[in-house]
Amino acid sequence: MLSLGAAGVTSAAPFGKTTNRSKQKAAAEAERAGLQQKLSSLKKDISKTENAKDEAADTLAESEKAISDANRALRDLQQEQGDTNVKLKQLSAEHDRLAATVEQQKQQLAKLLRDQYVAGNEDRIKLLLSGDNPNRINRDLQMLAYVSQAQARLLESLRANLKAVEVNQEEAQNAKDELEEIAQEQLQQKARLEQEKGRRAALLSTLSKKLVAQRKEAGSLEKDEQRMAGLVDKLGKLIAEQAAAAAAEKRRQEEVAAARAKAAAEARALAKARAAAEAERKRLAANQNKSGTIKPAQPTQPTQPAPNPADAIDSDEPPKVAAIKPAPVEPAAPPARAADIALAPAAPAGAFAALKGQLRPPVSGKIVNKFGAKRGDGPSWKGVFIRTGEGADVHAVAGGRVVFADWLRGFGNLIIVDHGGQYMSIYGNNQSLLKRAGDIVKAGDAIASAGNSGGNEESGLYFELRHQGAAFDPAGWVKF
């Protein structure tokens, strides 16, 4: 199984440098590793129940996944390139502004020094020894102080701006390095994309007759239906488990925080009592010193508890206060890893149901197969097939979280979005998957590009809606 991350050889940063982009990409891939492992295990579990291992579409799987990964990588790189260019323009404008400010400050400083030189560069000692009017001397000294303060502020501001220029130049250079890194990756991905497209075309030509025959087999269609139902059921269970785990983790964190707050409050109360007892002891000791009847404090027996500070108020002896140790505080538990809660619903229950009849179509095109229509001698359609051009953007019909984004036999490059409340939308036969499992999407976000992966004859999108694992007619929900 290919990685859920961008496929292809990742180029090193130019000139051996490690850019901020490289570090961020490495961190993102590390966070995605746990989720990828879960989904890989899920796919293997589904594959164990299948008998047929020689379907023609499976031969296309590796090539179609590689095309999807390369297209997604190119799209991501284009977005990164645009963002980096905007950042570079902002840095350039900031550099020009800082350079103008530095130049202005240098001129101001030069003028101050020139004026001071022209004025004779009189210092405070000369003024004090000049024998002039004291009022005038005092006024001149104050003026010199103001000038010195102004010079100091100007110098400090100049240093800060020079440092800002240096930081700006470093960031601009890093942005340029990132652009070069992106350009190198784009060349690699384009070459890989063309290579995989040629490979897929050759495979299709070889397998065309076998694909046509297998697509008409009722048994094959039933297995596709069972495969999808099994995947949705397993994803539903995984989502429920991780949602419960996330809720339990949240409760535990809240309990730990409450315990820490309670322990801190007890420690403050003990410290306050200790301070009060110490103050009372000092007061009694001071009174005894004044009366001249100082009584030595009796040693505290190890087995005796510390006396109550309140009892010492009526006693002649200073209170004996035992060392008060704050209650042990349980350290805060580390938060749950992102990969462990990546499939928890991103939308509240009921949010998707409220959108019934208002959803926009996932792609522009013509519906050629409707929900419930018979598929030859096989099962009826559990969704709709929308014919559209290859590469057309496929949009999420509502907000949610991507819970599956991979190749699946019978459906090609498949993406599933969980909308909360046990509602899911399913998008199959895509040329490319533009989102990865764990990504949060908003309504209208481009999540895939239409195609004919999985051995489909026509270019388009297979679309389903499911609730609690059961498919239902999208016509009453989507404004086709």
TrEMBL record:
In its UniProt entry, the species of origin is given as: Duganella lactea
Q: Which domain of life is it from?
A: Bacteria
Location of the region described as Disordered in the Swiss-Prot/TrEMBL record? 1-58, 278-318
Q: Does the keyword Nucleotide-binding apply?
A: no
User: What is this protein identified as?
Assistant: Peptidoglycan DD-metalloendopeptidase family protein
Stretches assigned to the M23ase beta-sheet core domain? 381-474
Pfam families for this protein: Peptidase_M23
Q: Does the keyword Iron-sulfur apply?
A: no
Q: Which Gene3D superfamilies match?
A: 6.10.250.3150, Glucose Permease (Domain IIA)
